[in-house]
Amino acid sequence: MRFIRPIRWILALYGKEIIKFNLNGLDSENITYGNRLLAPQKIKISSTQEYFKKLEKNYVIVDPKIRENIVRTDIEQIIKEIGGEKIINEKQLKEIIYLVEYPNAILGKYDKKYLELPKDVLTIVMEKHQKYFPVFKNKNELLPLFIVIINNSKEHTSKIREGNENVLRARLEDAKFFYQEDQKIPLEKKADKLKNIIFQENLGSLFDKTERLELLCDYIADCLQVEQKVKKDLLRSAHLCKADLVTEMVKEFPELQGIMGKEYAVLSGERKEVAEAIFEHYLPRFSGDRLPLTKSGIILGIADKVDSIIGCFLMGLIPTGSQDPYGLRRQSRGQIAI
Q: Looking at the structure, do residues 42 and 80 belong to the same domain, yes or no?
């Protein structure tokens, strides 16, 4: 039996009786500990019946369903008080409840100037990198506020809030800098830098991949008898679809690939159909994600996945039970879904 982190103690009871055994040099006993910040002292558990109550008195909520209910209720109450839209990232909520023993939600804020950044940049910085919950004014608009779930009592919220606000400010300042720097060079010129990024040793650079995508898209478009206007947008999006991978923003926040491609395409003066296809060709990114809706996005997405799957199989890079470095299974499922 292996654990990611060191085992500090073992509590094992059946009724009032200790179940005796030794694991990794530790003997089981009837001792446990409370919250490491609020009640780190030893707690003697005399019976299984008192286990939950004693730990709760020592700032540990054992039942994850109760922790989830506390977090959800706290978030909803804060959102209601400030007049925000009740939008909660359920996946993040499920993750957060296993990171805290005694959850409490506190509200933090950041400067309004950062709202000039794309909404997806703000949400990914807050959710993925800081484990915060963004606060929405409505479905498409953020408020300069965030909710953080702490593993502590509310007595220390002032310092905790200040600390989290400082951390977020630094992250958003970085994002703002990257966003401004990236706009100094049009997406077209960034595409040339793909020559310096290897896609796969025997399959060439990402620039080589985009050239293959242009050929594939041209072929598929002809097979489907796509109108010339759409075909022109399709080939342009194929040429630019990987260009955002060389931007500072995507280097720092890889989750933004495609999202920033669309954003920078618009800022570079590309047609909105081209920008949308650049974003859509990555879809679906995960199980249950939305599918591409535009013709260009669908065809480019298919071409990209076909190129990766066939190319990697030809090179012998076939997924195994434990390895799939190029995400071929995910791309295959996405191909089928499209």
A: no
**CA angle (311 as vertex; 332, 338 as ends), nearest 5:** 25
Same domain, 317 and 227: yes
Which ranges constitute the DSSP H helices of the chain?
51-57, 64-82, 90-96, 119-124, 157-182, 187-192, 206-223, 228-240, 248-252, 259-267, 272-280, 295-314, 328-337
Residue 2 within a domain? no
Cα–Cα distance measured from residue 56 to residue 32, given in angstroms and rounded to the nearest whole number: 12
Tokens of 21: 């055994």
Same domain for 73 and 174, yes or no, is yes
209 plus 176 within the same structural domain: no
C-alpha to C-alpha distance for 45 and 13, rounded to whole angstroms = 9
| 256-305 pLDDT per residue, tens | 999 999 999 999 999 999 999 999 999 999 888 999 999 999 999 999 99
We report the CATH number of the domain holding residue 233 as 1.10.3210.10
Please check whether residues 72 and 138 belong to one and the same domain.
Answer: yes
What's the rounded Cα separation, in Å, for the pair 227 and 220? Answer: 12
Domain that holds residue 53: 13-57
Q: What is the pLDDT of residues 28-44, one digit of tens each?
A: 999 999 999 999 999 99
Query: Which helix or strand (DSSP H or E) is residue 29 part of?
Result: none
Within 8 A by CB and 6+ apart from 309, the residues are 328, 331, 332, 335
